[in-house]
Specification:
The complex is a heterodimer of chains A (283) and B (280).
Chain A: E1 4-13, E2 26-34, E3 38-42, H1 49-56, E4 64-69, E5 72-73, H2 80-86, E6 87-90, H3 103-107, H4 109-113, H5 118-131, H6 147-159, E7 165-169, H7 177-194, E8 197-202, H8 205-208, E9 213-218, E10 221-226, H9 228-231, H10 235-240, H11 247-257, H12 269-282
Parallel strand pairs in A: 3-8, 3-9, 6-7, 7-8
Antiparallel strand pairs in A: 1-2, 1-4, 4-5, 9-10
Helix pairs in contact in A: 5-6, 6-7
Chain B: H1 16-19, H2 22-38, H3 42-59, H4 63-70, H5 74-87, E1 93-97, E2 100-103, H6 104-130, H7 133-143, H8 154-184, H9 194-200, H10 202-225, H11 244-267, H12 272-279
Antiparallel strand pairs in B: 1-2
Chain lengths: 283, 280
Amino acid sequence: MADIILKFDNVTFRYDGDETPLPPAVENLSLEIKKGEFVAILGHNGSGKSTVAKLSNGLVIPESGDVYVNGMNTKNENDDFKIKQTVGVVFQNPDNQIVATIVEEDVAFGPENLGVDPAEIRRRVDEALKIVGMYKYRLHEPHKLSGGQKQRVAIAGIIAMQPQCIVFDEPTAMLDPEGRRDVMNAMKRLNKELGITVVFITHYMEEACEAERIIVMDDARLVLDGTPEEIFSDVNYIRSLGLDVPQTCALAQMLKDDGIEISGELLSVDGLVNSLAKILGRG
Amino acid sequence: MLKDITIGQYFPLNSVIHRLDPRVKLLYTFVFIIMIVVANNFVSMLFCVICALSVTLISKIPVKTVVKGLKPILFIIIITSLLQIIYVKTGVPLVSFWKIKITSGGLLEALFMTMRITFLIVMSTMLTYTTSPTSMTNGLDRTFAPLSRLGIDFNIITMIMTIALRFIPTLIDEVDKIISAQKSRGANFESGSIFKRAKMLIPLFVPLLFNATRRAYELAYAMTCRCYNGGKGKTTMNALKFRAGDWTASFLTVAFVAGVIFLNINFGEYNAQFTFNTAV
């Protein structure tokens, strides 16, 4: 129990509709995320995955069921600050997350709100900016940075609060390939070097494959939960959910459909090459 | 046209003026504005102008940028000058046609007003050029903190100001994008009667307003994530400290005030007739 940082217990949530109640955005969702994990949540638009981000630190409160952060229920308002400090959320549009007009002052916003000592804030801000590789831009104005740089500033703003877990809600969706790679690398560093639990919500298949565990959502429900290999073993099911599959898996599936027995690690290019070599060598 | 908005824009450089405490800059800019209004003769005014120019030079802000910042008030300067020229009848009559008599007094008064307005704006823009909006709001925050006793929560007001300043460039970019999008569908913003052009602004402002509202919601979520609660118990990374430079600035400001008062008394209220005669 102690090593579970985020727990959804049979959670249902719906947004306020005008008159007729809207269908639930998340329905009967139960899931547990362990400390130090790198989890990707995958789903097409409207599958409820962004709502999971908002539920995870009490930005929205479940209609039924409970969300626990380190054992604290997000319904308990007394723990609100502690919960938001434990689980940070980075959103899709970096422009709408940056509050201040100077990079370092924006990064300082969180710790300032928490009433941290000025010298300690300075230390945290410098450290956070170095982690995401934006230290030399600390005195720049955010609107003069590229999308990827802005998103890394937004990440630094969360890191400066020293969270144990960061939920990324499609952080790469609005970025160019270079920005996307930079943000991916920053997320991996947070997980590997700082031991921060990363929950990464995306609809890019290639990015999701870099996680240790993938959760697939469809139509407000959790439909699959497993390692990337397990998830993509059933290519046809993934496709039926309106999701893409990695090219390697697609190729392996086409071979299987033609009656060729192929096994082993089929997700990475190297793994697939090895499996193919085995078949060809035998044939 | 949209890129020309410079008032309220910070110009990040590393000068003595930039490093001053924002409270000091706020207060002394205010003092300068009072003094340039109080200055009642050309000598005092010249003294104010020289001081304002020195501040501009020390701040390292390019003169071109400062001049560009004056563009929006050019209209006001012209109108004021014209009114002075037409209505002031003192001094030596120079030209007269139709019902208008231009006198030396009118011209000098116009020059005087132009100097006053121009350097009043130069100093105010100096404040915004050299002070980052965040440190400005910090300064405002501290200066007006006593107001919280009157039930006015200045923390929230300064937060609103910061966000407004932060989103000006973002929304300008957005307007540019919307204009391009509308133009690509054949919208025409540049020709037609004033009525027609005003009507063309509707398809510009509706999406802008819509997007701004959406941004506001997302920003609110992001701020909540970072434990914003209206500024209660907030600390500041760059705590404001009164440094040597601030003492120097204080000393210079006192000297400046004394200088203007001295020159005001010594040369008396400026008299168009007198000034003109001595000039000639």
